Amino acid sequence: MPKTLYDKIWDAHVVHEDKDGTCLLYIDRHLVHEVTSPQAFEGLRMSGRTVRAPEKTIAVPDHNVPTTPDRENGIENEESRIQVDALDRNAREFGVNYYPVNDIRQGIVHIVGPEQGWTLPGMTVVCGDSHTATHGAFGALAHGIGTSEVEHVLATQTLIQQKSKNMKVEITGSLRPGVTAKDITLSVIGATGTAGGTGYVIEYCGQAIEELSMEGRMTVCNMAIEGGARAGLIAPDEKTFAYVKGRPHAPKGAQWDAALAWWKTLKSDADAHWDKVITLKGEEIAPVVTWGTSPEDVLPITGEVPDPASFAGGKVDAARRALEYMGLKPGQKLTDIEIDTVFIGSCTNGRIEDLRAAAAILKGQKIKPGLRAMVVPGSGLVRAQAEEEGLAQIFLDAGFEWRLAGCSMCLAMNPDQLSPGERCAATSNRNFEGRQGRGGRTHLMSPAMAAAAAITGRLTDIRKMMAQTA
Amino acid sequence: MDKFTTLTGVAAPMPLVNIDTDMIIPKQFLKTIQRSGLGKNLFDEMRFDDDGNEIATFVLNQPAYRNAQILVAGDNFGCGSSREHAPWALADFGIRVVISTSFADIFFNNCFKNGMLPIVLPQDQVDLLMEDASKGANARIAVDLESQTVTSSDGQVFSFQIDPFKKHCLLNGLDDIGLTLEKVSAIDTFVAQAAQARPWV
Predict the structure, then answer these.
(1) Residue A24 and residue B187: Cβ atoms within 8 Å?
(2) CB contact under 8 A, B105 and A26
(3) CATH code linked to domain A5-263
(4) What is the CATH T-level fold of the domain A289-469, as seen in this structure?
């Protein structure tokens, strides 16, 4: 029977299947961070259980950690410190792989995993974090789980799962200049809605996806969850293999050859069955921004704030509430929206290519006076590379703060937060009410678009700025 | 885990669509290292103003719904972050059942690990139950897991679907990890075979 890539990875990991189709699925990699794991480790202790496969478990603090240099002296916020200390204690006690706060390899868990070669094609990867979908860029089946499931994976290295349906999202053709992976993934969510992927695993394919770098593919898969999908996948190819090769935990020598032979089989069969298919034309995708409080509230930057009455069903009230929260009026041009904060970073857009894209716009430019702008690299290694490439200096010269690695203002668990009414151009993944701080207003966009907004102080069409500098 | 069999109680209406887990329990309350005590911060930013005073118009602050045990909610309830703190907060407040037209995947799964029952019904039935819930404390909705039914205050009965394994675990309050560890020999066999097939993992 012809199979999708998802079918193939699934089949290779079924430990046991019940008559009703409930499966026990083996987990190859378990990533752990400080916020969703303390109760799981405590659960193990209380029941006298242990971590079944510490060598397949990777822990790194990211959500709570401050991103200012003074973090070397310890974390000031007591609750955050307790949580990071708990991870430290748990990681050492149970003997899992661990990158502490002051290790240069520390960073956002979804950036560290691929960077260190923990994430490989054909694997099952889970983490108590919804953006685990990121790792799907390698052709790994990767998804977020709750804390009870974290405990289950720690204790058994398996997960009780029902199989999802197969959805294909094809992006044909090539992207136009100024359009990025972020615009693809937001445009897909705009087309399907935040519940459009519920019950599915998405495979992204098509020329525009193939043409993306690994960093871009991670951005696309990262936001599969914002479309409701359990996971997003992209079939591995030569770019994938080249990215993985030589990473600290990637296979070497004869094992590399064996792995590569299997990885090359990891693609959907031509006549595989799809339960749902979405196709977008790459050349028709524009640079987009969000206007509301759901990632599905997305429009091309050339658009206007919509009238809530133009929606149907429950979305009418939701859009009305969103506009009130966002302080916007129907018909307002998106390029007239002024911002006061810029955040470049997160597991969506905190990789080296993202920083290069933003720096290319900011080179020789200054941010608008009075604006607060920060770059938070996704890992210590991304940060070091950006410094080596001279990107850090470009950001600093432009007026950005240059921070240490962490989740930072994506979810504002650390001191990096918006105040009520503050409006942020953000490269992160969620524009929910209060996400970046109570009363804070978030517009999601690509790193290049965020950099352009930093210069003008308003949402800006990157293509116009590119035309000027060309 | 607590068993779930039947529940009859006050249902609070929350017709808003896409209620995300950031709304259910904002990030500042995720710094706990315990599961308990989150009910007081459930829907914190919708429930309390900047000074910590109750916002009178919010449904769970209204006298009729202060002891609600059921939520009837708009589509795509529980989307966003995987935080299990969301069902912990709901359960700690006293809510054991959420009824909607659809749920986000991770939230849905997390409910079952905490003795909570998320129920999916078609739009017209959710609309009827939303109307029923809007009548206040006298309109009590009854949920029976064994027979897979929801009964409105005026006696209309709606059937819902549920995965048999999840139903079995809820009815008996079973611990997933204990069940899986009974299959440890199957896991050992798989690991041995995988070590041959994919030794690089």
Answers:
(1) yes
(2) no
(3) 3.30.499.10
(4) Aconitase; domain 3 (3.30.499)
Residue with tokens 């989740």: A407
* Chain B contact present for A57, CB below 8 A: no
Q: What dihedral do alpha carbons A336, A220, B29, A158 form, nearest 10°?
A: 170
Q: How many Å apart are CA A265 and CA A267, to the nearest integer?
A: 6
Between vectors from CA A50 to CA A92 and to CA B194, what angle results, nearest 5°?
100
Nearest to A284 by CA among A174, A186, A193: A174
Provide the 10 A C-beta neighbour count for residue A249: 17
Task: List, in order, residues 6 or more apart from A202 with CB less than 8 Å away.
Answer: A167, A168, A169, A224, A227, A229, A231, A232, A233
Q: pLDDT tens digit string along B32-87?
A: 999 999 999 999 999 999 999 999 999 999 999 999 999 999 999 999 999 999 99
Tokens encoding B41: 């911060």
Q: What is the pLDDT of residues B2-33, one digit of tens each?
A: 899 999 999 999 999 999 999 999 999 999 99
Is A83 touching B (CB cutoff 8 A)?
yes
DSSP letter for A134, please: G
Rounded CA-CA distance A57/A99 in Å is: 12
Tens-place pLDDT, residues A43-101? 999 999 999 999 999 999 999 999 999 998 999 999 999 999 999 999 999 999 999 99
Contact state of A15 with B190 under an 8 Å Cβ cutoff: yes
Predicted local distance difference test score (pLDDT) of residue A469: 61
The residue ranges of every structural domain in chain A are 5-263, 289-469
Helix, strand, coil proportions of chain A in percent (round to 5)? 40, 20, 40
Which strands sit side by side in the sheet containing A97-98, from one edge to the other? A97-98, A57-59, A29-32, A124-127, A141-144
Residues B163-201 have pLDDT tens digits of: 999 999 999 999 899 999 999 999 999 999 999 999 999
Break chain B into its structural domains and give their ranges. 6-172
Count other Cβ atoms within 10 Å, centred on residue A102.
11
Helices (H) and strands (E) in chain B, counts: 8, 7
- SS3 state of residue B102: coil
Smallest CA–CA distance, residue A85 to chain B, in Å, is 11
> Is some CB atom of chain B closer than 8 A to the CB atom of A89?
no
Residue numbers of chain A with a pLDDT score lower than 70: 469-470
Q: CATH number of the domain at B6-172, please?
A: 3.20.19.10
Nearest to B198 among A47, A151, A262 (CB): A262
**DSSP-assigned letter for residue A122:** T
